[in-house]
From TrEMBL:
Source species of the chain: Rhodoferax koreensis
Pfam families: ABC_tran, TOBE_2
Name of the molecule in the record: ABC transporter ATP-binding protein
Highest rank taxon of the organism: Bacteria
GO cellular component, one term: ATP-binding cassette (ABC) transporter complex
Length: 352
């Protein structure tokens, strides 16, 4: 069942079109990530859902209620939608208790208990209630911001790059904790991020935005393995894109004959592999023959657990860019080694 439906939403600032016909359905209980480069319109879309901005045209429907029909819109405070902005936006002069309880009436019965319950939901110790925001870590501040948004018991939570100020380890741990918390509370969530790995790991629906349009919406796995075009593929991770002749479920390309995931395609096409699909095995140079694909290691970028190995295919012209292959650090072949290149899984054929 869909909780939120966005239909044909357009928004311009002066002559600049920021949202150019957005259609998106968000199922109840799901986690959606909107991902896209800086300036593509992600925050504007989130602010339209929250009610801080209104569309020029198009509709926003939430739980069957029309929230916006063009500029005719329900104000933000009547929507029952939580919003956690990028920097948390805590009130610096208020302590944690007053930040968390900001939207709760001062004379509300059980107010202190509700604030303690919210602190517990976001795994913060109530011993922190008297502290000011500057006396908290970045991760703790984000949790307070989340608790403040949860106080309104929203059915939908909007998160605008809430983890971007956190360092890598804390970021992953906070993201996971927040995802679990929102799911167990049954709160539908939309996360805006420009970090593709964050989108892929957080969401069960990913929407890729480019220049004010949603270019593809689907599960993380579908988008990663079957992106619509090379730009979307490249945005979601590293790629190896090769020209090929495809037909009957196979592609003939510089790596030899490999399986493709669209059996119905034929003719000249561009195919895509993810670098982790290529596997290298060092072999003696005299074992090179025509039955497999071989190359020479030209460079290694040692990254510990995963290294990027540059491989020039034997027979390729010197102007052809080497393949960038990911290889475990303990098995990395040396520069100059001859390697057999094998492909795991199938390649994806781009539509155009
Ligand atoms: N109030 C405004 N007035 C004029 N232009 C605006 C306004 N808000 C946003 N824009 C412009 O709209 C475009 C999209 O902005 P938006 O913040 O939605 O992008 P974004 O994808 O969230 O980017 P980022 O990842 O950098 O936050 C940008 O070109 C921005 O400059």
């Amino acid at each position: 069942m869909k909780l939120l439906e966005i239909s044909a939403v357009r928004k311009s600032y002066g002559a600049v079109t920021v949202l150019d016909g957005i259609d998106l359905e968000v199922p109840a209980g799901s986690r959606t990530a909107i991902v896209g480069p800086s300036g593509s319109g992600k925050t504007t879309l989130l602010r339209i859902i929250a009610g801080f901005e209104f569309p020029d045209s198009g509709t926003v429907t939430f739980g069957g209620q029309r929230l916006a029909d063009g500029p005719d819109a329900v104000p933000a405070h009547k929507r029952g939608i939580g919003f956690v902005p990028q920097d948390g936006a805590l009130f610096p002069h208020l302590n944690v208790a007053d930040n968390v309880g900001f939207g709760l009436a001062r004379n509300m019965p059980g107010r202190a208990d509700r604030i303690a319950e919210l602190m517990d939901m976001v795994s913060l110790d109530t011993a922190m209630l008297q502290r000011r925001p500057h006396e908290l870590s970045g991760g703790q501040q984000q949790r307070v911001a989340l608790a403040r948004a949860l106080a309104q018991r929203p059915r939908l939570m909007l998160l605008d790059e809430p983890f971007s100020a956190l360092d890598t380890g804390l970021r992953a741990a906070t993201r996971k904790a927040v995802a679990q918390l929102l799911t167990s509370a049954g709160i539908t969530t939309i996360l805006v991020t420009h970090d593709q790995s964050e989108a892929l790991s957080f969401a069960d629906q990913v929407a890729v935005m480019r220049a004010g349009q949603l270019v593809q919406v689907g599960t993380p796995m579908a988008l990663y393995l079957r992106p619509r075009d090379p730009a979307t593929a490249g945005f979601l991770g590293d790629t190896i894109v090769l020209p090929a002749q495809v037909g009957a479920g196979w592609a003939d390309c510089a790596l030899g004959r490999i399986a493709v995931n669209q059996a119905d395609r034929s003719g000249a096409a561009q195919i895509m592999l993810r670098p982790e699909q290529l596997q290298l095995a060092e072999v003696p140079v005299e074992s090179v023959d025509a039955t497999a694909c071989f190359g020479e290691v030209t460079d290694i970028d040692f990254g510990g657990p995963v290294c990027v190995v540059s491989v020039r295919l034997l027979g390729a012209s010197s102007s052809t860019a080497p393949l960038q292959v990911r290889s475990p650090g303990i098995h990395v072949p040396p520069v100059g080694a001859t390697v057999r290149v094998a492909v795991a899984g199938s390649a994806h054929v781009f539509d155009r």
